[in-house]
Amino acid sequence: MLFNNYARRPVHLVKGEGTVVEDADGKNYLDFTSGIAVVSLGHAHPAIVNAIQVQSEKLWHVSNLFESPEQEKLAASLMKDTHFSHAFFCNSGAEANEAAIKLARKHTGKSTIITFGQSFHGRTFGAMAATGQEKIKQGFGPMLETFKTVPFNDPAALEAVMDDDVAAIMLEVIQGEGGIHAVTPEFAAVISDNCNSKGILCIVDEVQTGIGRTGTRYAYEQNGLKPDIMTLAKGLGGGFPIGAMLGTGELFDTFGPGTHGTTFGGNPLAVAVAQTVVDFVFEEGFLKEVNEKSAALIRKLKESLPPDRFDIRGQGLLIGIDCKRDVASFIRQAEEAGLLVVQAGTDVIRLLPPLTVTEEEIDQAVDVLTSILLVPTTI
Ligand code: PLP
User: Fold this and answer.
1) Which of 233, 251, 281 is the C-terminal boundary of a domain?
2) Which of 23, 207, 248, 342 is the one with CA 20 to 30 A from 101?
């Protein structure tokens, strides 16, 4: 038996190709979850299959005690034309955030990290404490005091907790799990002002929004934030576990040998896959297509769903349909109709198709969603 920590749906998926996955009974579904923003190039992308095959015949694992030109190359690809200059590879989003928290505290010598209501940063002890959702923390006893969580997009609340012990402000540029809420340009400016004037570090958690998900390489590029630290995972590996933390040059000396580490982080298989993903996604034509598909998806949803009942939010292919009521039953109905989607908060259906989704698949998904959502309800 497995622990009961997931509300698993009674569907056993056994294979996939592109956006389509098949269950053990041979039923096909359009996967508009991408394994929760992970399978960025779709299932079984030939280039990824090839990358794993080629690397698996050479070297599966090498300790971080040895040099890694492959990690260096991936780091350079991730940081090209950005203000970041150093990278650390790990295995997941929570781990990347743990690294960011440690780096910020060690660099500044200060303790407090400010995070925001409805945020999600992961399930490890530090990342859980950083997360701005009570339900995630329930039953786990006293949380780390290092985090002060204030309402999102609320400048007065942020100013109220500023003191001399603040090491960093940590945010998702668009809150994914919390219901697809983007940082407003005004609030981004307040964060930047505080960071610049008080020597506070800005950490963006782009575990869900990074690597093309929002139509640019990173979501922060769209709103004027200039983070000191950024965390990545999910879409970076296209389905293979990998996380990353990028930092600016001034942070370099803080993480000297022996300060932080992981056995598996930057594993050759993971790096080979991530390099393939990044080479595809960061190509200009690819991101242009993501934006075209995003515009088509948003337009079709807005045309089909009346604005008084549904609020369509998001950027790129991270789209939320706020149904203003609990969406659990809609998610089940979509699944029965052959469309996999995921909940965000209680009221939001989250659409996260692979970045390689086709316009035809977008049309099919919108048809399923409208047929379910527009049925009059007595609840
Ligand atoms: N940060 C954000 C914004 C996330 O969405 C998630 C996962 O949903 C995490 C961190 C945690 O990532 P992981 O599950 O890989 O530890």
Assistant:
1) 281
2) 342
Closest listed residue to residue 327, CA positions, set 307, 301, 311, 347: 347
Across-strand partners of 322? 311, 348
CB under 6 Å to ligand 1: residues? 36, 92-94, 97, 120-122, 172, 176-177, 205, 207-208, 233
User: Which two tokens mark 257?
Assistant: 């040998």
Q: What tens digit of pLDDT does each residue of 179-198 get?
A: 999 999 999 999 999 999 99
303 and 173 in a single domain? The answer is no
Could you say which of 281, 315, 337 is where a domain stops? 281
Ligand 1 centroid – CA 308 distance (Å): 32
CA atoms within 13 A on the CB side of 58: 12
Which domain, by its residues, includes 338? 24-45+283-373
Cα 12-16-19 angle, rounded to 5 deg: 115
CA–centroid distance, residue 178 to ligand 1 (Å): 11
Q: Domain tally for the chain? A: 2
Judge whether 325 lies within some domain. yes
Half-sphere exposure of 155 (CA within 13 A, CB side): 11
CA nearest to 178, candidates 36, 40, 340, 343:
343
Q: What is the pTM of this model?
A: 0.97
Query: Annotated catalytic sites, by residue?
Result: 120, 205, 234
What distances in angstroms separate CA 18 from CA 115, 124, 217, 227, 368, one per listed residue? 36, 31, 21, 33, 19
pLDDT tens string 254-289: 999 999 999 999 999 999 999 999 999 999 899 999
